[in-house]
Amino acid sequence: MSTYEIMCGAAGRASDAGRHVWRIWVVAIALLLSAHTNLAQTGEEQRVLKLSRDKFRWLTSGATDSLQAILDPRMQYVHSNGWVQNREEMIADLASGKLVYEAIVVKTATVRLYKRSAVVTGQGTFTVRMNGSPLVIDLGFTEVYVREGNRWLLASRHANRMNP
């Protein structure tokens, strides 16, 4: 076998190997992009999560007008100690200072969409003042939003204490 034949054979095998590696990379990138697309949130999911974040911001700033606009008239707000408030009670307690949300740090939040509802589940640290007494608690929360026309309203919220 001549040197030329040996070199061409080796180059051919190297070229085949290079094409094989290239194909593996193309498949790997396609799989990663596919997984990313499947994990990406839809625009409506992002909208609901933003509303949930805005709600927490309004709770800490005392923006009762903004809160009233997103609370369903039949809303139930269940606290981690079992205390249940309706929309009017919640707004009144925030306005009076009976319950003050000093800080809310959301650690996780996910949303599941259904036809006319959305369920947000998450965890966070809530720093509150109840009747003047400070309290810092780690909570899990579930929020149910219902779609009324083009807007989402908070219909129900439930919180439970998380083990540290």
Can you offer a commentary on this structure?
The structure is a single chain. The chain is an alpha+beta fold and 164 residues long. The chain folds into two domains: 40 residues; 119 residues, Nuclear Transport Factor 2, Chain: A (Roll). It contains four helices and six strands, in the order αααββαββββ. A six-stranded mixed β-sheet has the order 2-1-6-5-4-3. A hairpin with a 2-residue loop joins strand 5 and strand 6. The radius of gyration is 27 Å and the shape is globular.
The rough form would be described as globular
Mean pLDDT: 85
The helix tally amounts to 4
Spatial strand order of the main sheet = 2-1-6-5-4-3
Order of helices and strands: HHHEEHEEEE
As for the CATH topology of the largest domain, it is Nuclear Transport Factor 2, Chain: A
Structurally, the number of domains stands at: 2
Distance between the termini: 73 Å
Extended strand count: 6
Low-confidence stretches: 2-8, 30-39
Which secondary-structure class do the elements indicate?
alpha+beta
Portion in beta strands: 35-45%
CATH class of the largest domain: Alpha Beta
Biggest pleated-sheet summary: 6 strands, mixed
Radius of gyration: 27 Å
What percent of the residues sit in helical stretches (DSSP H or I)? 40-55%
Features of the shown structure:
164 residues; alpha+beta; Nuclear Transport Factor 2, Chain: A; 6-stranded mixed β-sheet; 4 helices; 41% strand; globular; disordered N terminus
